[in-house]
Amino acid sequence: MMAVAIGMVVLVAYAPTVAGDGGYYCWSNYDHEPKTIKRINCKKNPHAASLHGCQQQCDMNEDCEGIVYINGVHNWKKGKICCFLKSDIEEERLEYQPHRTTCEEN
How far is the C-alpha of 96 from the C-alpha of 3, rounded, in Å? Predict the structure, then answer.
């Protein structure tokens, strides 16, 4: 009797998770540096200080195709900027970064 082992190759991709009401694909703990069209100060605009609120800001901007949301105390620029509107999200440009969520409109 002969035993044959068959190896499996598992490919890891940036598997999106769906979040938000408007139909966004989101990647937790990933950032997308290029294509920022607007940085939102969440101290001045508290409605954008959640993932859903940031997505709503994108929905109101005709040039916006996605967002990067930075959670809570990890906000950029002294805790002010938490929402970045993007003109495009390129999956191949995603970079691992904790406490950030990148979302692309469906």
Answer: 40
